[in-house]
Design a protein that fits this description.
21% strand, alpha/beta, Rossmann fold, 8 strands, eight-stranded mixed sheet, 266 residues, single chain
Length: 266
């Protein structure tokens, strides 16, 4: 597979009346690539998110990461070192996490998609443009970001046709907006990677969601990774599980590649 050099841009925009930053990483080539929106997890946009976005862009994707904590400051992120050494970091992180709302995230997505559209218009002037991909967007969410993937794909099924959830959280709760209540109606293609040993959001606690999407097995792939805990994605944490992270990576790329190929055949 061809790996591309990557260019990074930081967009400064506004959402919900507050300044918002959107991280953008793209292949350093003047042509159009499929767009991917990443919904970050509780630690926010930190070096690990940069590294993941860089890797994904290198595989030929335009990656956009909205700063979901922008209502409280610019690019607030918590590294594993911060969380281990600063007594105030973890309570602050959970405070910001609790302040997130489904509606607020979707407002941030609206703004992000305007940037996607603007970037796509510019890319159409480059060589190798494929207009068949013009409205197709993918999404990836980690932890709480997985809930955002669900609501995004449910509300925008014609645009967000494929997505991935890595060690998801908050897919089952007692609110009317809980994903498990409508998961049986899920319209797109989805990869979900759970950690078998997840101590933050156990597989058992997510079982109502799993049961709801199980009949959609032709479009929804579920992996329960042996021995993997929550946040198995991140190499800079003690929970990193290389086997689980690599399998989720391969499954996600395969899903996006197959979806792109299917769109190009239309």
């Amino acid at each position: 597979m061809t790996m591309f050099k990557v260019h990074e841009t930081i967009f400064n925009t506004t959402s919900d009346g507050k300044p918002m930053t959107v991280l953008h990483k793209k292949p350093l080539k003047k042509e159009k690539f499929p767009a991917v929106v990443i919904f970050h997890d509780a630690p926010g946009i930190r070096e690990a998110i940069h590294a993941f976005s860089q890797r994904l862009a290198g595989h030929g994707y335009d990656v956009f990461v909205p700063d979901l904590y922008h209502r409280h400051g610019r690019l607030i992120g918590f590294s594993s070192h911060d969380l281990a050494t600063d007594p105030s970091a973890k309570p602050r992180m959970y405070e910001l996490l609790a302040a997130l709302t489904d509606d607020g995230i979707q407002q941030d997505l609206d703004v992000t998609l305007k940037l996607v559209d603007k970037h796509n218009l510019a890319a159409q002037k480059g060589e190798g443009n494929n207009s068949k991909q013009s409205n197709q967007v993918y999404c990836i969410g980690f932890c709480v970001g997985a809930r955002a993937v669900f609501h995004t794909m449910m509300q925008r099924p014609e645009q967000f046709v494929a997505g991935a959830m890595w060690h998801p959280s908050f897919l089952v709760d007692d609110t009317p907006n809980s994903p498990h209540l409508t998961a049986s109606e899920f319209p797109g293609s989805l990869y979900i990677g759970f950690g078998e040993a997840d101590e933050t959001m156990s597989v058992a606690s997510m079982q109502p969601f799993i049961d709801a999407v199980a009949p959609l097995s032709d479009r929804v792939t579920i992996d329960i990774h042996p021995e993997a805990d929550h946040a198995y994605t991140w190499p800079d944490t003690s929970n990193y599980n290389e086997a689980a992270a690599q399998k989720s990576w391969e499954q996600t790329l395969q899903l996006f590649e197959q979806t792109t190929a299917a769109a190009n055949r239309l």
